[in-house]
Amino acid sequence: MRKIEKPMLKPLKSVLSIAFTCITILCTPQNNSNDLIWEKAVAPGLVYRSELRQNPPLMVHALRVISSSPVVTFSPELAGRTVYEAKGDGRATVSKTASDTNAIATINADFFPYTGDPLGLMVRQNLLVSIPNPRRSIFAWGPTGAQFGFSKFTGSVTSEITGKSVDINGVNEECSENRVVLNTPDAGISKAKKGGTFTLILKVDGNRLAPTAQVGATVISTTSEGANMPIGPNVFTLVAQGTKISSLNTFKPNQRIKINVNTTGFDWEKYEHAVGGGPMLLKDSDLALDAENEGLDGDFSNNRHPRTAVGRTAEGDYWFVAVDGRQKMSVGATLEELAEIMKTLGCKDAMNLDGGGSTCLHLLGVNVNRPSDKEGERPVANVLSFFGPRIQPTTESLKIVVNPITGFRKMTNARVMDSKGREISNVEIIWSLQGAAWIDQGGQITTLEPGSVEVKAYVRGVVLSQKVALK
Question: Range(s) for CATH 2.60.40.1080 in the chain?
Fold first, then answer.
């Protein structure tokens, strides 16, 4: 077993009073003495954990948010900032969204179709972005805690003059046959499937829509040409198709209306954010898998895949986990195995998020896991972004040095050296490598196949890279 530094952990207040540094801890799980674990501090109250398991081969990456941290926050973010965009399909890679939001870490979140609309509930800063799938589990959180549960949505629009009411069937999604969809500025584009549509263009009092709310609005205009209309920052739309057109076209310009929405299951006075996923993994520290009732089949549950999950400990800390899969060095996990991973981390409650090729954990400018798609990162609809202080980037000259290697399934070591030839301690480095080899957080590279690789390292506030040919 390799020897890895184990410095003393400082209390949070002490860490806040000085420039924080990375820490590394080696632990040995009880089930396999050959397993390796590294933990490296990203910011005060945010820790990156990397596990290398041997039987079966598995790479587990995780972020722990210490609930008492006064400087680390996390929130759901849309790729591209809106559900739909004029160019593209409303999706972006996890690393791109990390850059766009200036996050210190980002992980993929909810399931999605390729149009880019999150399939479950999304609430960001008390604003309703996407409505829940009533069968799928949800993670909601705020300054004082979090809750895992389920939700249902109902909505309506009512004329203040006639009292006529029309049900709202969706929010910020593509309007389909015989439905009415309400779009807020978060939609970006008021979309509808091919066919006739009728659209109300609204000015909403206050320009905000909470998960459960009643807001007044004025009909500015109506149009039958609004199927793919861009939405400005202060505009809402109501779009109808099919049989619902006759119900909506009775509303006229300058008419006052009331919009009522109700998203059940959570106290929105306590929770300001939410994301959907599913299925639930743990409840009160017990296995809580019921994938079938959440609309997920046996292959999804029982086969090993890349996985992403979120959990909360009894102490109130949060774990966000990415498990590599479909690769030689990491076979992935079943949902039951994922639940066991979350329980081992101390989670009392936990929920699965989107996985497969979507699984990606981006940290301080590098992807620490290995997305399973051959093309690299898969564009996703939304992410969880983590915000906190960064260390000042160093101005010293640093470089990655990789020991020569010949042959495959061989190992070598990567190091970071300063301009005077001194080796930087591994406790300060977060490693990343994609392609024909892989790297652990001890800096050990293992080759997989012929080709070349690019080794990356985050160290002292900068990202270094070095291309290496495998001979």
Answer: 398-470
Q: What is the mean pLDDT of the chain?
A: 91
The one-letter amino acid code at 105 reads: A
Percent of the chain with pLDDT over 70: 92
- Contact between 107 and 251 (Cβ < 8 Å): no
Structure tokens at 444: 């050990």
Please tell me the class of the 398-470 domain: mainly beta
Q: Is 238 helix (H, G, I), strand (E, B) or coil?
A: strand
Helix (H, G, I), strand (E, B) or coil at 427: helix
Question: C-alpha distances in angstroms, 1 versus 15, 32, 53, 147, 198?
Answer: 30, 12, 13, 40, 67
Query: What is the pLDDT at residue 274?
Result: 98
The single-letter code of the amino acid at 417 is M
Beta bridge partners of residue 201, listed in sequence order? 221, 237
Annotate 24-51 with DSSP letters as a single string.
------TT-TT-EEEEEEEETTEEEEEE
Name which of 260, 259, 261 is nearest 251 in CA terms.
Answer: 259
pLDDT of residue 1: 33
Sign of CA dihedral 108, 111, 114, 116: negative
Confidence of residue 33 (pLDDT cuts 50, 70, 90): low
Residue 245, both tokens: 């057109």
If pLDDT is split at 50, 70 and 90, which confidence band does 29 have? very low
Bond preceding residue 279 cis, omega within 30 of 0: yes
- Mean pLDDT in residue range 101-113: 97
Per-residue DSSP letter, 80 = G
Tell me which DSSP letter residue 326 carries: S
309, 209, 301, 298: which is closest to 259 by C-alpha? 209
Query: What is the per-residue pLDDT for 375?
Result: 87
Query: 272: which 2 tokens?
Result: 């300001």
- pLDDT for 192 equals 93
- Residue 260 has which token pair? 């009522």
Query: How many Cα atoms occupy the beta-carbon half-sphere of 69 within 13 Å?
Result: 23
Burial of 55 (0-12, 13-18, 19+ CB in 10 A): exposed
* CA separation for the pair 115, 88 (Å, rounded): 9
